[in-house]
# Entry
Amino acid sequence: MQKKYILEMFPYPSGNIHMGHVRNYVIGDICARYHKLKGDEVIHPMGWDAFGLPAENAAIQFNTHPQDWTLLNIENMKSQLKKLDLDLDWEKELATCKEDYYQYQQELFIDLYEAGLAYKKDALVNWDPEDQTVLANEQVIDGKGWRTGATVEQKVLSQWFFKITKYAEELLNDLDGLELWPEKVKTMQRNWIGKSIGAEIRFKISGEDDQLNIFTTRPDTIYGATFIALSVNHRLVSKFLTKEKINEIKKLFAEIDNEKEKKGYLMDIKCKHPLLDKEIPVYIANFVLDNYGEGAIFGCPAHDERDYDFAIKYKIPIIKVIECEDKDLPFTQNGRVINSPLLNGLEKSEAIKKIINYFEEKEIGNKSINYKLRDWGVSRQRYWGCPIPVIYYEDGTFRVLDKTELPILLPYDVNLNGKGNALLNHDSWRKIVCPKTNKIAYRETDTFDTFVDSSWYYIRFLNNKLDKPFDIKQVNDYLPVDKYIGGIEHAILHLLYSRFFMKALRDIYNLKVNEPFKQLFTQGMITHKTYRTQKDEWIMPREVYLNEGSLFREKTNEIVIEGPTEKMSKSKKNVIEPDEILENYGIDATRFFMISDSPPDRELEWTDEGIQGSKNLVRRIERYFKENRTDMKHDTDKMIEKFVFNIEKNILSFSLNKCVADIYTLFNYLEKEKIYLHNSDISKKILVCLYPIVPNMVLNLYKQLFDSKNIGNWPKINKELLIERSINLPIQIQGKLITTINTKKGYKENEILKSIYKLDKIKNKIQDRKVTKVINVQDKIINIIFD
RNA sequence: GCGCCAGUGGCGGAAUGGUAGACGCGCUGGUCUUAGGAACCAGUGGGCAACCGUGGGGGUUCGAGUCCCUCCUGGCGCACCA
# Structure
């Protein structure tokens, strides 16, 4: 028996499931049911990503408690999921907000800490003023919080970090081995990790016992360096300038007209050029990133666009060191090095190699690799999350707790007023006497980023009742997840964090698993037309009715304007409620429609015609089997065999839309040929194949036809029957199709040519020209060539 | 700007280098009726035809929607990453 771990991304219990969930889970369910019929040992669990800020907001808004709100939502959504006929193993259910989950996460944190993979440091962090919490770099999109959209501020706080950067190289390299992941996701992760190979060069500061370490990918342009630029947050800036001055500069930098505008501030210090006997000026510049490298660059204006713009603005010399026309400046392509005593005449790669060797020899620099990836900041200043098992003493030191001191449970009695962290204000929970030292201590009041929760839930599913995080043998036996299905929006955050966790745990526990998800399938979004009134008020599709070619709103009879088709969203109100659809069309039509109109990895447009078409298909199949007689034709067996083969192939390749086409093709054939199967064995075969897609309908039909609900296993395919004995052979002349002839497979070329040449269509084409070549692709095509 | 993906009928979409448009929706004409959110039959890329047709232009090949080059358009991601 083969194990198949099939997993769909678990939902946040927001209150109700939406169509996106339905599509996601139906796709996964079809896979899981298919594999069960094949006799595989299928693991198909479901759980809840249950910590997170919305619960706190809801608690304030509705005067309830985050826990009560969350658990109620879970119950509600669970009953909704059950209506979808999902073959889930609810015994394995877990919720990350429950202590039987998060206490083991606290254990894992202790493991990570002891392995040197969790650490605390003062850091300039992204502060979301609306959520009043820190965000990871990955959670800041265009300078705004990923959830709130509020402009993120920079703040210095003492924070816990996970050392994901230790795995940067492995996380990057192992992407190559993930053959069953979408290329797109791998590309996004590669870009995020952002590996650059170059050099780190030391620049001495004139008259000071201090130096700068500058990373560059273009050490071949070092002779063209005419200035240094620092980020305003660079160490040396606060060393040489007052706080007031720095704030002044920050204000200056904030006043720019467009994002690319360069601004600088000339400092009083100068740097020595590492190779030339000259000094170059040091600026603070707005375009230098402080979280990349050391936050310092050398400017080579002749061969870098940004440096060029800056040099023009501040009248800094521009020295060409790569051969090019003046009009082409800044010249950033490859070329021969000039004006560089040690490198003249060399091509880029040779020059880079040579200069790095020289730097290393003279100890003024070395080869260096840089990553964009930063360590993962996991502290969140929120109540509704997993507590970090750490205590602080009054002298400022801290202690990570022992596993025997766990669990650290969240207190239920908190005052949620929306201002700051409720744990910080909960004195009786926070203040304790340390059992080891008998000293007064205070608990860590930050909780984990909820992405920590989802980084290992697929491991916990293997045994959600174990009194330790997981069982090593079980992990080795059942991971990786064979098919992981979810939205593309998690391409970086969740999937990268999970990969990191798997590798970190592998090293700590000596596991044999390198990657958590063998195959990743990203399903497309569901879209729908948008509708609004003339007052620009979005309205729901169900409020719209059609009258004499125009759209109107029910009740008010306002004129309705049809907008573009967009992703279903609450704000645009173009949503369809799963409960209503199930009520009106039933589960079978709903499941059919989720896979009918587009391939699962593409957008699915919700249309009334689409769901109605699925409903009609359900009715048609049910009606077909009501016909109480069996009449077969000689090729019926073959047709059915082909059907089984195609359905299987298309389920395995996630081409579920083609499964629907296969079903139509089969019933078109059966009805057109007036073939009725009723309660024959062939009906059993057909129904088994339909079962993964529409289990409800199949079980009902099976009961009616065979007085049983035991549908058995996936049919074994008789390959003999798949072989076509006669074919329609296309005949081409000069590569163009002229006609087709029906013939037996395995025909003899010279024999069939004789009959081909007798055909009028062929004779007319060839006339008396001389045939120079005949290409016979046996049983596929014949192509006749003449001069 | 860089990277990735994609461009096929009125629409969604099928096509291991070998009959382009499977299957569905929509539409047209017809049938039936318990008048339905039904069902059935016929048709549906363009053109009267020869023929022409997979974003444009080249190429490889006996043969290209498919492979190569180039350009255009759209989507997504990243984006002052030194």
Q: What stands out?
A: Residues 257 and 738 of chain A are 66 Å apart (CA to CA). The radius of gyration of chain A is 34 Å.
